[in-house]
Every structure is written in C-alpha cells, then in structure tokens.
Design goal:
alpha/beta; 7-stranded parallel sheet; 7 strands
Length: about 280
C-alpha cells in the first residue's frame, strides 16, 4: 500500500489486544508511526501487542525511539473512558488517529427470544462504547493544530491537512443481516449513522470520520469454537466470491489508509472490506 513510510503523529487504538485492533497497530507501525496508545480490557493481550508493535517500529524506523503505551479500558464505563482518554492526552502531545476496534459478537437469537441483557451488552460495547471513545477523541482533536503545522518535516499539503482522523469499525452486517442477530446488526448499523453524523459535524474542524465494514475475518472473535469455525467455512465463506476469510492485516491496511492524509477527501464513508460478500448478497 502506498502509505508514507514516515507516517507522522500519534495513533490511538481501542480493542488493540488482538484481532483487527492488533493488526491495525502493527500496520501503523509499518507505515512509520512511532507513537501509539493501545487500549483494551485484556491486559495480557495488550502487553503482547505492545511488544509486537515496538519490534515493528524498531525494524521499520530504527532511527526513532518507539513510544508505545498501554491503557486498560472498559468502553462501557463513561467514567473510565473519560479518564483513560485524559491519561492518553497527558502522556502524548496530541492524538492524530483514533481507531475504534473494541467489539463483541454474541448472536442472541431473534428479537422475540433475544435476552434483554444480551441486547444491552452488545449495544453497550459495539455502539455506545464506540461512541464514548469517538467523542473523547473528537474533543482532543478539536483543539489541536493542523498536522501540517504540527509536523512540518512531513511536508503535508495545507489542502490535505487535518486535525485528526477517526476510523470506526462497523460490520458488513450493518448493511445486510443474518438470522438471529438483531442486536449485533442494529448496533453496527448505528455505528454507520454515527459516523456520517460526526463526519458532517466536524468536517469544518478538519476532522475526518469514516467507517470500515469487515466481512468474515479470521480473528479470535470469529473463532470462539471449532463448531462455529466449521459452520462459517461451510456457509458464509462459500457465499464470499473469494471463497476464503479475510485476514486482520487486510482490514488494517484500509484502516491506515483512511486515517492517513492519503484519503484527505474521504469523510462520512463506509468502506466494505468483505471479499465481495456484499456485492452478491
């Protein structure tokens, strides 16, 4: 991917302990980003991600010292989200890229039988939690100078400059559905509406907001058991034109592109990265 090998700025990634979040952190490091805040509830996974990201930065940009910090966060808690983003702002001079990857998948059944606790939990993490994180990132970005001024050595065109970029992770199931998943599909559809609204509200402040809609991706969240893996391989994967699952790295490359100045004229967009699944749905 034609991303600058010296991507300036500070990246903040929620859900960074595994899967797409971890892959995104590594992709930022491969693009030359040397300052990163990794957020998740899984402290063990966070430390593993930190080691991988630090190693990648050292290999990609050996002349620069990695500045990678981890923060434990519960995205369902307003107080915790506010406190953690405040700690990030204290530790780093600014936040240039904020990627919201934290999410869960529990298909609780059709609406008449879906437990209310399950519905509330999915919305608390996948929609409300994402909104809490995104709004705190916007607050930080709103008051910082354009990246063209903050990083003069990067020679960013004033036309393409930004105060920050937000990438929200939604799902292909925001646009189409599958049986027994109203809570998950509804929460992910909400992310798209939120993304469009924030994109309109903050474009004047030069903050871009976009969403990525992964299809069936080979990550821990889609592999909770051999039985579910087998069902996906025999059903959903066979309806994907590529006839395979995507990789977290393939999603991460699009995330980095949407966060970077390479996509300076893109905001309020929903990028499907689903192997063509939606095209033939």
């Amino acid at each position: 991917m034609a991303i600058s090998p010296d991507l300036p700025g500070v990246a903040l990634i929620t859900g960074a302990a595994s899967g797409i979040g971890r892959a995104a952190a590594i992709a930022f490091a491969e693009a030359g980003c040397t300052q990163m805040a990794l957020l998740d509830l899984n402290e063990t996974g966070l430390q593993e991600s930190k080691e991988l990201v630090t190693q990648t930065i050292s290999a990609t940009t050996p002349a620069k010292t990695p500045n990678v910090s981890t923060f434990t966060i519960d995205v369902t808690s307003t107080e915790t989200v506010t406190a953690v983003f405040g700690a990030v702002r204290t530790h780093f001079p600014r936040v240039d890229y904020s990627v919201q990857c934290a999410g869960i998948i529990t298909f609780g059944g059709a609406s008449a039988t879906c437990p209310i606790d399950d519905f509330d939990r999915q919305n608390a993490v996948n929609y409300r939690g994402l909104w809490l994180c995104s709004r705190e990132a916007i607050k930080i970005m709103h008051d910082q100078e354009l990246d063209s001024d903050a990083y003069p050595d990067a020679k960013i065109s004033p036309l393409r400059a930004q105060r920050g970029a937000i990438v929200n992770i939604s799902s292909g199931l925001a646009n189409y559905s599958q049986a027994g998943s109203p809570a998950y599909c509804g929460a992910k559809a909400g992310v798209l509406a939120l993304t469009r609204s924030d994109a309109i509200d903050y474009v004047g402040q030069r903050i871009r907001v976009n969403a990525v809609l992964p299809g069936i991706v080979d990550t821990p969240i889609t592999n909770p058991s051999p039985e579910i893996r087998k069902w996906l391989e025999e059903n959903s994967v066979q309806r994907t034109p590529f006839k395979r699952m995507g990789t977290a790295e393939e999603i991460a490359d699009v995330i980095v592109f949407l966060a970077s100045n390479k996509s300076s004229f893109v905001t309020g967009a929903s990028w499907s990265v689903d192997g063509g699944f939606g095209a033939g749905y």
